[in-house]
Design a protein that fits this description.
With 238 residues, this protein is an alpha/beta fold. It has helices at 8-19, 27-34, 40-53, 127-137, 172-175, 177-193, 202-214, 222-232, and strands spanning 59-68, 89-100, 112-122, 143-147, 161-165.
């Protein structure tokens, strides 16, 4: 709330709105709900809240996702490559806690139970970048499962056990189910609500998605938790 000219009431209303649903709100919609004439202060308020959401937060699944974003400095949009190496899509490392569960009857749901998830925007998928993200976000004693992408080869140096597997596209949902569910759900959410996302702010939107997912069982306490997180940090710390 530091340096903001918006009244506390607007902050509380915005916190209530973005924590009261599994989906999200665009800054334009929050502006309409608040009855504010200027868009920029509302946009800045939402991104401050999303930044805070990223600050508080067994076995681990690890994979990368590619999110289509807009870079205002990028002028040539033709002939871009899709997936790994794409210039048009922003690279995101996706991590989740998961463990096998016993299932009594057959179901289409994954045979793993998911705990917390994290999503981190990265500039590239080089081995040193991947290792740094893992060191900062995954406990050293973890068992990490990935596909056989070469950049994951050195993970054995930063975690207790690394299990690389050759993953056929049809079997990705079996070996790394929850990272793919998280990637798919977050992409669908962003496409449904926002026309386009600047790659400089993608991390904030992913923070909001992970914040809500990780607190899915305490939905009624999200508002209180966000207030505590917001007042505990100064903007110049973010």
């Amino acid at each position: 709330m530091q340096s903001s000219k918006l009244p506390f009431q607007d902050w509380y209303i915005a916190m209530h709105l973005i924590t009261s649903t599994k989906k999200s709100f665009s800054a334009k919609e929050i502006q309409r709900q608040l009855g504010r004439k200027r868009y920029q202060p509302v946009w800045e308020m939402l991104h401050k809240l999303r930044s805070v959401m990223g600050l508080r937060d067994g076995e681990v699944e690890l994979d990368e996702g590619f999110f289509e974003t807009v870079d205002v400095e990028r002028t040539d949009k033709s002939g871009v490559k899709r997936g790994r190496g794409s210039e048009k899509q922003t690279k995101v490392m996706v991590m989740d806690e998961s463990k096998k569960v016993d299932q009594v009857k057959k179901t289409k749901r994954p045979d793993k139970k998911v705990g917390f998830i994290k999503m981190k925007v990265v500039k590239n998928l080089k081995s040193e970048t991947v290792n740094k993200v893992v060191e900062e976000n995954i406990k050293e004693q973890s068992i990490v499962t990935t596909d056989a992408y070469p950049s994951y080869n050195n993970l054995k140096n930063v975690v207790k056990v690394h299990i690389p597997q050759v993953v056929e596209p049809k079997k990705a949902g079996k070996i790394l189910p929850w990272v793919h569910i998280a990637i798919a759900n977050s992409k669908r959410l962003l496409v449904d609500i926002y026309h386009r996302i600047d790659d400089n702010f993608l991390q904030n939107y992913l923070n909001e998605f992970c914040y809500k997912f990780n607190r899915r069982y305490i939905q009624d306490k999200l508002f209180d938790r966000l207030i505590i997180a917001s007042v505990a940090y100064r903007w110049n710390q973010l």
